[in-house]
């Protein structure tokens, strides 16, 4: 039952995110705000509080990291408004009110409020619009966030419990599912960091999510080189962060997504076997996830697992890439919701 609930949860979240991306006004910009806020808050917390401050017992850095990690509501409120075309000053007014709210409730409230502010900017004369925004926006966004927060928090807690319980009872089953989904999501505007944050992944599931992204870097680097995708700077960039090369990735989506899904499942089982854990969510990202791993686990075990995933990913990517090259499968095209209207070769 836990497996069905956990897998069903993953699928539902992915479907909702995909529908939001495809059909919601400014859906892509909204998800970019979520991803950016997760990056701006979770990564500093992970690096400073857990990886550096935790390993070397530097309390000053731990405090800075924890402070950054606690400001997700402010970050996503500001970024959501800016990404939707709201004036930066108005965006800050909205964001500051969301200090005590977590990422998703703050995002929903800011996203909805942004449309009200855009209407005010359009209808109210310049200069007077600032006063109107001050009188309306803070109360509106705070009220929306307060109204949304209990329900969203309860749902997210249920999701986190469902997914993490599968990790405890059936680690390899969850590993296969996460290995299939996380690497592919990391190469789409949906963002694996946002998915991991929404799912509330911690412990073994978060370690799987983080290190399969690290393995995907080696997979993509090998494929880009073997199949001559892009130039040398593109190949290095996709190794560091796949989303920087999203235009190239969607051009060859079936090949890259399919290969990453297959190899991701293998690598996820290796990570599940290692028993590694990460105690902070949102770390499904190639470089940061691997570094944060050392803050929660034995350095030797962490190095061995990362090396095993890197070697496995590289070898399998070379084998699959050679088959793709031999049978000329590189230019297969399957329409994706996030690359609608783009040209394909």
Give the SSE layout.
Layout: H1 2-23, H2 27-56, H3 59-69, H4 72-83, H5 88-97, H6 103-123, H7 128-169, H8 171-185, H9 192-199, H10 203-226, H11 232-240, H12 246-251, H13 253-274, H14 286-293, H15 299-326
Helix pairs in contact: 1-2, 1-7, 2-3, 2-4, 2-6, 2-14, 4-5, 4-6, 5-6, 5-7, 6-7, 7-8, 8-10, 8-13, 10-11, 10-13, 10-14, 10-15, 13-15
Give a description of the structure.
The protein has 345 residues and is mainly alpha-helical. It folds into two domains: 167 residues, no CATH class; 176 residues, no CATH class. It contains 15 helices and no strands. Helix 4 packs parallel to helix 6. The longest helix is centred in the middle third of the chain and has 42 residues. It starts with a helix and ends in a 19-residue tail after the last helix.
| β-sheet strand percentage | under 5%
As residue ranges, the low-confidence spans are none
Q: How would you state the average pLDDT, rounded?
A: 90
For the biggest sheet, the summary is: none
How many strands? 0
What is the gyration radius calculated from CA atoms? 21 Å
**So how many helices?**
15
The first-to-last residue Cα distance is 44 Å
Total domain count? 2
Element order: H for helix, E for strand: HHHHHHHHHHHHHHH
Q: What characteristic shape results from the CA principal axes?
A: globular
Structural class: mainly alpha
User: Roughly what percent helix?
Assistant: over 70%
């Amino acid at each position: 039952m836990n497996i069905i609930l956990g897998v069903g949860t993953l699928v539902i979240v992915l479907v909702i995110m995909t529908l939001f991306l495809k059909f919601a006004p400014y859906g892509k910009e909204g998800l970019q705000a979520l991803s950016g806020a997760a990056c701006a808050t979770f990564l500093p917390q992970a690096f400073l509080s857990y990886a550096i401050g935790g390993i070397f017992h530097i309390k000053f850095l731990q405090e800075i990291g924890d402070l950054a990690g606690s400001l997700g509501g402010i970050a996503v409120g500001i970024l959501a408004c800016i990404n939707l075309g709201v004036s930066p000053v108005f965006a800050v007014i909205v964001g500051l009110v969301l200090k005590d709210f977590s990422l998703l409730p703050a995002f929903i409230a800011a996203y909805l409020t942004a449309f009200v502010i855009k209407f005010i900017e359009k209808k109210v004369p310049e200069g007077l619009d600032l006063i109107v925004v001050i009188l309306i926006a803070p109360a509106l966004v705070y009220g929306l966030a307060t109204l949304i927060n209990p329900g969203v928090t309860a749902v997210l807690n249920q999701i986190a419990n469902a997914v993490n319980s599968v990790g405890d009872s059936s680690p390899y089953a969850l590993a296969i599912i996460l290995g299939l989904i996380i690497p592919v999501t990391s190469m789409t505007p949906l963002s694996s960091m946002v998915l991991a944050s929404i799912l509330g992944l911690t412990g073994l599931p978060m370690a799987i999510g983080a290190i399969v992204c690290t393995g995907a870097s080696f997979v993509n680097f090998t494929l880009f080189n073997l199949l001559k995708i892009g130039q040398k700077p593109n190949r290095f960039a996709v190794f560091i962060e796949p989303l920087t090369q999203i235009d190239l990735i969607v051009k060859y989506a079936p090949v890259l997504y399919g290969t990453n899904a297959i190899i991701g499942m293998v690598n996820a089982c290796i990570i599940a076997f290692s028993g590694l854990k990460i105690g902070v969510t949102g770390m499904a990202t190639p470089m940061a996830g691997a570094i944060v791993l050392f803050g929660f686990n034995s350095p030797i075990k962490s190095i061995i697992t990362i090396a095993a995933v890197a070697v496995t990913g590289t070898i399998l990517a070379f084998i699959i890439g050679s088959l793709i090259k031999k049978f000329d499968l590189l230019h297969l095209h399957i329409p994706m919701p996030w690359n609608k209207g783009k040209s394909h070769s």
